[in-house]
Amino acid sequence: MNTTTFTIYSKISELPANWDEVAAHNAFLQKPYLTVLEASAPSNMQCFYIGIYEHSELIGVALAQYLNLNKLESFGERDKCLKTAVRNFVFKNFASHVLFLGNNMITGQNGYTFNKEIEFKHISEVLVQCAAAITAYFKKQKINIHLVSFKDFYPHCADELKAFDFKDIYEFNAQPNMIFELSEEWKSDLDYVAAFSKKYRDQYKRARKKCDDIRIRELSLEEIITQETRIYDLYHHVAKNAPFNTFFLAKNHFSSFKKQLKNQFVLMGYFLDDKLVGFHTLLLNGTVLETYFLGYDSDVQKEKMLYLNMLYNMTEFGIQKQYKRIIFGRTALEIKSSIGAEPIMMSGFIYHRNKFINKYIGKIFKNLEPEVQWQQRHPFK
To answer: Does residue 95 contact residue 246 with C-beta atoms inside 8 Å?
Structure first.
């Protein structure tokens, strides 16, 4: 690592010209997406963009996010219990300033990428050093970072990192990432439905019938801007009823996304009697289809099985466009497994900068992490 250095940037305009060439394999680390964050990040988030150099040549890029949880309107309103109240108190008082090395807004290994083979020894070293440098920056601003988290690593990467600088950092496994590996034999939605067992084929038919009078179409940038308030209200309703939140999107997030990524970003609107009652979003990321945020009217969702129909529509979009896999993320595990997604465990690493608290970080984390009981479904013959 004597020849490796890093530079931390706070503005997209400062990034090297060849940034996107290095980040070519991950849309979530390329300038258009990072520009979306700069223009419409949650109000309690500040982003940092890290260039990793070898002999002054850019060989890697990474993302870091600082979250001030004191600015959060709610940690989530779905669960009302003593454990939730205790968790909220702890976060407000002992973990309100959080630094993520990675992207806290999406699920998946999207925190860094290199354009050449790099040993995990060097990766672990540079990530830890970057965290220390950003922590020192905030200390100068009179802000004391409480928690540092390195987010979302697939098992083989986590195992490699633990052999080096991550060996003394607490590893945690939150809910799995639901990933759908699409069969190459599926050329249309008919092939997909034909692969279901009778029970799940019946579920598909029932859901589709419920949604007969819903009109679905992709929204242009102009339409997204026109519907911005309604889109945000639908998103916000779903987000605030999640079991746990660390941020809420800015109101202009979806229009900013469409402006920057154009055809790479898809927002599908669901209309009932010409009124927008739901939407889902997709990011086209090479051979991978990334599901992004969605929203819906809860009354319509219940009556029309709107969420399940959204999952089917995202899957059929992926099949029609011949994507290899769909990343469905961490929420609603059981219903996502019922349409074919499989759980893939991912690891994160976390430490508290107070040594006494960090000594018990494992016990504290297990007691604060919302428990999710779910049964995996197996929909195919």
So the answer is: no
Cα separation, 9 vs 15, in Å, equals 7
Q: Are 182 and 323 in contact (CB under 8 A)?
A: yes
- Could you give all domains of the chain from N- to C-terminal order, each with its CATH number? 4-174+346-368 (3.40.630.30), 178-343 (3.40.630.30)
Contact 328, 341 (CB under 8 A): yes
As a whole number of angstroms, the distance between CA 381 and CA 379 comes to 7
Quote the pTM value.
Answer: 0.91
**b or e along 101-140 (b: 16 or more beta carbons within 10 Å of the residue's beta carbon)?**
bbbbbbbbbbbbbbbeebebebbbbbbbebbeebbeeeee
Answer yes or no: is pLDDT of 370 > 80: no
200 in Cβ contact with 338 (< 8 Å) = yes
pLDDT of 297-338, one tens digit each? 999 999 999 999 999 999 999 999 999 999 999 889 999 999
Extract the tokens encoding 339: 């349409």
pLDDT at residue 157, as a whole number: 96
Please classify residue 270 by burial: count the beta carbons closer than 10 Å to its beta carbon, then call 0-12 exposed, 13-18 middle and 19+ buried.
buried
Q: Give 223-270 pLDDT, tens digit per residue.
A: 999 999 999 999 999 998 876 678 899 999 999 999 999 999 999 999
